[in-house]
């Protein structure tokens, strides 16, 4: 099964760890999230270095910037 979302992060980012914790209840209920280091993306460092962590819906390419709450994630997923 393919992931639904990507969580764009960098190594040693404490906010990224916080975002993973907020996402965990969704993952436990079946949301598939691929964690992607922005350094591996062609546009990553330039586009995301000041915005991470970012939750990106794979199909719609919509993005939710940090900080986000469980309620905001739920609304984001319903719109995607």
From TrEMBL:
Pfam families with a match to the protein in the record: Glrx-like
Alphabetized Gene3D superfamilies for the sequence: Glutaredoxin
Cited InterPro entries: Glutaredoxin-like (IPR008554), Thioredoxin-like_sf (IPR036249)
SUPFAM superfamilies: Thioredoxin-like
Record protein name field: Glutaredoxin family protein
Organism: Pseudomonas asuensis
């Amino acid at each position: 099964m393919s992931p639904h979302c990507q969580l764009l992060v960098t190594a040693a980012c404490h906010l990224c760890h916080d975002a993973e914790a907020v996402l965990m209840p969704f993952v436990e209920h079946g949301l598939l999230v691929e964690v992607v280091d922005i350094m591996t993306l062609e546009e990553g460092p330039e586009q995301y270095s000041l915005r991470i962590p970012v939750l990106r819906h794979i199909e719609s390419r919509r993005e939710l910037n940090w900080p986000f709450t469980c309620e905001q994630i739920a609304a984001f997923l319903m719109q995607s």
